[in-house]
Amino acid sequence: MLASALRDGTAERRCVFEAFTRRLPDGRRYGVVGGTERVLEAIENFRFDEAELERLAEDHVVDETTLSWLRDYRFRGDVDGYPEGELYFPGSPLLTVRGTFAEAVILETVILSIMNHDSAIAAAAARMVSAANGRRIIEMGSRRTHEESAVAAARAAYLAGFTATSNLEAGRRYRIPTAGTSAHSFTLLHDSERAAFESQIAALGADTTLLVDTYDISRGIATAVEVAGPGLGAVRIDSGDVGVLARQAREQLDSLGATGTRIVVSGDLDEYAIASLRAEPVDGYGVGTSLVTGSGAPTAGMVYKLTDVEGRPVAKRSTHKESRGGTKSALRRHKDTGTALEEVVFRTGRGFEDPKAGPHDRVVPIPLVRGGERVEDLPTLEDNRERLRHALVSLPWEGLKLSSGEPAIPTVFQAEETA
Amino acid sequence: MLASALRDGTAERRCVFEAFTRRLPDGRRYGVVGGTERVLEAIENFRFDEAELERLAEDHVVDETTLSWLRDYRFRGDVDGYPEGELYFPGSPLLTVRGTFAEAVILETVILSIMNHDSAIAAAAARMVSAANGRRIIEMGSRRTHEESAVAAARAAYLAGFTATSNLEAGRRYRIPTAGTSAHSFTLLHDSERAAFESQIAALGADTTLLVDTYDISRGIATAVEVAGPGLGAVRIDSGDVGVLARQAREQLDSLGATGTRIVVSGDLDEYAIASLRAEPVDGYGVGTSLVTGSGAPTAGMVYKLTDVEGRPVAKRSTHKESRGGTKSALRRHKDTGTALEEVVFRTGRGFEDPKAGPHDRVVPIPLVRGGERVEDLPTLEDNRERLRHALVSLPWEGLKLSSGEPAIPTVFQAEETA
């Protein structure tokens, strides 16, 4: 595409591309934007090095003109978009990229890869955080996904309200809190469970989490309190019917005077399992597989479509797949109580008037890149974490239900030309 | 764990860890090993740099002793395992790592990340290749998964028999064939569909694939043949009821004399959709989302368990989660016809006798690492691609059915001590 467009001169046409999703994953009531910050970093670093160019040349993937264009590539256009932690709905204009066709089209894969992955994880994580209802929830899924996805997933989980991650590289790269745990192998390594507990407490003190289900849980708890004393930080149960086991563990810990010792459960938890434990004496959750695989929706299904060429709206027309041409923005309308009402997607630019915003309404996209340079003082990961917390509170109450349903608020397309 | 074990001296105990899966994803009849080669590379490169160590120190994640141990880390043990492209079943000993506790335990996450991801993709890909029944099938899913997973997914798809990938970085990194395609944006960019087709043909010649469904498919095909002539390489249809459309397209192409022009279909295809198109005049498939998300099984669910400490078998005992202690190998038994019969998982080492192998049986794991050094002349990606092709042919015919079912062959655990 790039080679052809450079050859025929259309490569330089001013274009607008938009990232959006036609629908939420089956039954989901909201989406959560994740990855915007990583996208900006990827755009800044989008260059072709000599090894890459050589391979393209050797294999005759592109011609000389294209190679030299790629050698000098850097994005010089503008980007607007939904900040991370923002909710989205079908048709929300999540990212709008303005530039020449050539400079904008080659960003498609990296933009969608990042946003489809990180948003899928963030949405699943947000549902789990809702289900955990204020209890600690720790991301422990690294080993069930690609080694680099794992780092991004830990970040997306934190964005969505997870307390910490077991992924140390995510901690280092994004400065998010980390938390460790010991595995069954640590207990099995030692001559006895007692020896393992003694060793862990000698190294980390009594305010640690002992894994008590390697052999027999009630014996494990008894040994843990004997070794650590009633000041033991926490016990972790990783298998079995964790609701029942948590109740038994609580009783046993209390009877041993370890009333402050917390109970952490893990082992194939998803948002439904977490919600079902709400009435049990569980103090924290460790979540792995279901988080890093998006809990049934491993990709957000976003697409990146050309919407304008030289100011003229364009859209595919052959099928029922809805695509709307023209550059868009979105206004989220709210009731006076602050509850979200609808997502108004509107056309921008000459001939279009912005919809009237009430005092509780707000335009969702923000400027992210201008002339290839990242806008200064963009919100931080912590800001965006807070943003999501607020946004979830603003949803109509049905919107937070875990069951399958319609999007929490409708998307209204306002596309009448007013001029 | 590491800090505690270094402190109490157990870190140096000789251990064996095994990667295996307790079950296949729901209804799957076989698993496909992917990622072994990437695991070996990751083990070779497993080092801690100063930035990483600094962060661990700053945040008091580990103590001084552990930091200095990590600084000098390199794996010096042995690894045996299933080569890539091999089939596996519940309990197959996919990777066996022998070394000190410390050096083997810290590899858990990277080993499982790689194998869980790559095997999930390879298994989905193998089912799609079976369904495509010899037709070309191209991996185009990069934008629906994490940007680095995308590269690994392209590799796993090629291992499993895909013809090519649209991921150029995978082509460069692993020397696998790449294939491109033009998007609707390329057509929309131009003043007309005809102008877009003319441009593409001027750049790439008539033996290219024109995307014909931007406006109206039959007009698109007519224009494509007018512009390219009957020597047009292929047309691609990306939306609608592709079976019906492919038949209409074939008739139209034939009537225009373009009898050699191929028809490529894409757009939310999975193994079932591919199979349902078997009777249609489709020459090639482009597969995206369902491939890179493992077609419903985005992770292979492998675990990494300690099985031996200083020659003594160990296993968790608290629940029904089956774990079998002791170092194991596996023999795949076959009938005289070459059809696989069963996976015999057997204990190795002192006191155990290997099961008798018939002329068609073979021990599945191979040596991969000795004393920290990768074994020489390991099979290549091409060898392993061929391995899978052969292995699939050896399955009982029910094993290749796409419908849900039991594992294609049973796993038999042979654990009687003979001495």
TrEMBL record, chains A, B:
Swiss-Prot/TrEMBL keywords: Glycosyltransferase, Ligase, Phosphoprotein, Pyridine nucleotide biosynthesis, Transferase
UniProt pathway annotation: Cofactor biosynthesis; NAD(+) biosynthesis; nicotinate D-ribonucleotide from nicotinate: step 1/1
Catalytic activity of the protein: 5-phospho-alpha-D-ribose 1-diphosphate + nicotinate + ATP + H2O = nicotinate beta-D-ribonucleotide + ADP + phosphate + diphosphate
Annotated Nicotinate phosphoribosyltransferase N-terminal domain residues: 1-116
Function, in words: Catalyzes the first step in the biosynthesis of NAD from nicotinic acid, the ATP-dependent synthesis of beta-nicotinate D-ribonucleotide from nicotinate and 5-phospho-D-ribose 1-phosphate.
EC numbers for this chain: 6.3.4.21
The name this protein goes by in its record: Nicotinate phosphoribosyltransferase
Keyword Glycosyltransferase attributed: yes
Organism field: Saccharopolyspora gregorii
Post-translational modification: Transiently phosphorylated on a His residue during the reaction cycle. Phosphorylation strongly increases the affinity for substrates and increases the rate of nicotinate D-ribonucleotide production. Dephosphorylation regenerates the low-affinity form of the enzyme, leading to product release.
MF terms (GO), sorted A to Z: glycosyltransferase activity
Pfam family name, one: NAPRTase_N
Region annotation (Disordered) ranges: 312-334
Keyword field contains Glycosyltransferase: yes
Similarity comment: family membership: Belongs to the NAPRTase family.
Domain of life: Bacteria
Gene3D superfamilies: Aldolase class I, nicotinate phosphoribosyltransferase
Domain Nicotinate/nicotinamide phosphoribosyltransferase: 137-327
